[in-house]
């Protein structure tokens, strides 16, 4: 374990985030009040004076010590920001020397680097100045700068379609045939929750109807619909039709730009279910291989061969689907660089309109960190090469990055990127990640995000996580949804408060 101590000013949380980039799989925490340095620690010292600061960083690890110090100018307006950023760079450079690791996103630890780029551009900075700031102040590599700017152009065009009354509808189906080793979502196996299914669908239909009425009274217009999970196609064709019919009955779909249902796993897909989806007017589906290596699929808990993904993909094409997303994951346990390259090339042969390249993120709630924990240290370096290979090959074949986000504990401090053929961007992905308009969520684990139409205020309304709790306390779900109206009374769409 590595402990981060701060003297003079407390920047422990941010510096611990930087240290985590280098000590993968090791616990890195800010020191508790009164705690003393022992074996492995980082000590950051700050002596702040008007206009300047004396800073030092000491790293002690395995009975060796590294030190760095600097006197730096700081602004009167943001002295703490300047000191924290200088210390982060000092720590980054020191730990890079110690470990030989050079994270490509530099000291950026936030999950939305593209949003930072857009914010700076909105402030009137030129692209050259923004790039210089990220390169010099945050130590971001040229490769990631290029990716961020390419993604920003696509995202900006998508976000510009927003109007003050825009909103998206999310519908949660938190069920799967089995739980994958890396999964941290609140999802439940069909076998264990089968008896709850009909009751869950009935409640969900009631919530959808109630949400539609709330949205109507608030003056909101629906622009994207997204069925996520879990795996939405885990339910029966009849249950799926009941839900899509409910959406069509209660919402005006005439102005919907995109309607997505995650078909996800091939062991849940049938021709009948795909026909239901097609008949509902869904414009985009996901059929996710994650990898085309059968051994890796078995290891992570996917109970189907890679060929089943291809069969389902071809079935969807036969039924007329012309906007299909396929996800893959870089860094899956037991995968190799050659195997991952094969996965990318197989995707290019199939030619889906969307390809999302995820980097494995090791979450505490996933089985990967519990009893089935796996040592991922051997993948260090390979994961970066996997992601680089995917980016290069996809862009060589006409795919463009349109959304990008990062997660804590993501391998090699990398990113998740959505690529698409021109005009096939996944709109909901951008809206949910950028938080630029309201998302109304229905179902267990759903989180509604109410966005001020003319400002940055966001109010979150949480549904109960687990299906049995969602069902047993359903009246509370509806009461919480009514808070949407109160929010829009205090944040009116027309911008005039009564």
Structure description:
There is one protein chain. β12 (324-330), α12 and β13 (354-359) form a beta-alpha-beta unit. It is built from 17 helices and 18 strands. It is of the alpha/beta class and 498 residues long. The chain has helices spanning 12-20, 79-99, 113-122, 127-136, 142-159, 190-193, 197-218, 237-250, 271-279, 294-300, 306-318, 337-350, 382-396, 427-434, 467-472, 474-481, 483-490; strands at residues 2-7, 28-30, 41-49, 52-61, 64-73, 166-173, 175-176, 188-189, 221-229, 258-264, 284-287, 324-330, 354-359, 400-405, 416-420, 438-442, 447-451, 458-462. Mean pLDDT is 90; it is low at 364-373.
Short note summarizing the structure:
39% of the residues lie in helices and 22% in strands. The chain has 498 residues and is an alpha/beta fold.
Give structural attributes.
498 residues, alpha/beta, nine-stranded mixed β-sheet, 39% helix
For the largest beta sheet, what order do the strands appear in spatially? Answer: 14-15-13-12-11-10-9-6-16
**Major beta sheet summary:** 9 strands, mixed
- Computed over alpha carbons, the radius of gyration is 24 Å
- Helix/strand/pairing class, anyone? alpha/beta
Number of strands: 18
Q: Into which percentage range does the β-strand content fall? A: 15-25%
- The total count of helices amounts to 17
| Average pLDDT reading | 90
Helix content: 25-40%
Distance between the termini: 55 Å
Which regions contain 5 or more consecutive residues with pLDDT less than 50? 364-373
List strands and helices in order, with pairings.
Elements: E1 2-7, H1 12-20, E2 28-30, E3 41-49, E4 52-61, E5 64-73, H2 79-99, H3 113-122, H4 127-136, H5 142-159, E6 166-173, E7 175-176, E8 188-189, H6 190-193, H7 197-218, E9 221-229, H8 237-250, E10 258-264, H9 271-279, E11 284-287, H10 294-300, H11 306-318, E12 324-330, H12 337-350, E13 354-359, H13 382-396, E14 400-405, E15 416-420, H14 427-434, E16 438-442, E17 447-451, E18 458-462, H15 467-472, H16 474-481, H17 483-490
Parallel strand pairs: 1-2, 1-3, 6-9, 6-16, 7-8, 9-10, 10-11, 11-12, 12-13
Antiparallel strand pairs: 3-4, 4-5, 13-15, 14-15, 17-18
Helix pairs in contact: 1-2, 3-5, 7-8, 7-16, 7-17, 8-9, 12-13
């Amino acid at each position: 374990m590595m402990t981060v101590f701060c003297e003079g000013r407390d920047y422990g949380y941010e510096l611990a985030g930087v240290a985590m980039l280098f000590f993968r799989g090791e616990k890195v925490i800010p020191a508790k009040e009164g705690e003393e340095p022992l074996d492995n620690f980082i000590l950051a010292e700050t002596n702040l004076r008007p206009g300047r600061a004396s800073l030092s960083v000491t790293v002690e690890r395995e009975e060796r010590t590294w030190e760095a110090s600097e006197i730096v100018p700081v602004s009167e307006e943001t002295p703490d920001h300047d000191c924290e950023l200088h210390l982060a760079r000092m720590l980054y450079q020191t730990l890079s020397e110690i470990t030989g690791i050079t994270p490509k996103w530099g000291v950026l630890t936030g999950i939305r680097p593209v949003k930072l780029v857009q914010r700076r551009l909105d402030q009137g900075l030129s692209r050259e100045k923004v790039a210089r700031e990220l390169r010099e102040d945050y130590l971001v590599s040229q490769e990631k700068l290029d990716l961020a700017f390419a993604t920003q152009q696509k995202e900006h065009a998508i976000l510009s379609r927003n109007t003050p009354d825009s909103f998206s509808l999310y519908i949660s189906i938190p069920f799967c045939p089995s739980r994958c080793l890396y999964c941290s979502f609140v999802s439940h196996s069909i076998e264990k929750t089968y008896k709850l299914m009909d009751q869950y669908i009935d409640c969900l239909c009631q919530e959808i109807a109630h949400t539609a009425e709330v949205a109507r009274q608030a003056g909101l217009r629906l622009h994207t619909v997204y069925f996520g999970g879990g795996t939405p196609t885990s339910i029966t064709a009849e249950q799926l039709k009941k839900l899509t019919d409910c959406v069509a009955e209660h919402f005006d779909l005439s102005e919907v730009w995109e309607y997505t249902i995650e078909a996800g796993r091939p062991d849940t897909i049938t021709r009948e279910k795909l026909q239901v989806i097609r008949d509902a007017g869904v414009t985009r589906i996901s059929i996710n291989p994650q990898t085309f290596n059968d051994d890796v699929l078995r290891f992570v808990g996917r109970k189907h061969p890679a060929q089943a993904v291809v069969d389902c993909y071809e079935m969807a094409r036969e039924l007329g689907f012309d906007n299909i997303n396929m996800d893959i994951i870089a860094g899956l346990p037991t995968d190799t660089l050659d195997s991952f390259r094969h996965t990318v090339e197989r995707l290019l042969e199939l030619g889906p309109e969307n390809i999302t390249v995820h980097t494995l993120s090791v979450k505490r709630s996933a089985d990967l960190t519990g009893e089935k924990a796996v040592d991922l240290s051997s993948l260090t370096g390979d994961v970066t090469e996997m992601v680089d290979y995917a980016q290069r090959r996809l862009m060589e074949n006409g795919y463009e990055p349109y959304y990008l986000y990062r997660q804590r504990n993501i391998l090699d401090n990398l990113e998740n990127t959505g690529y698409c053929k021109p005009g096939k961007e996944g709109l909901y992905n951008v809206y949910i990640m950028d938080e630029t308009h309201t998302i109304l969520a229905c179902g267990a684990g759903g989180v509604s995000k109410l966005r001020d139409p003319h400002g940055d205020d966001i109010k979150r309304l949480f549904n109960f996580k687990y299906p049995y709790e969602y069902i047993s306390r359903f009246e509370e779900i509806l009461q919480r949804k009514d808070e949407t109206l109160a929010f829009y009374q205090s944040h009116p769409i027309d911008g005039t408060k009564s």
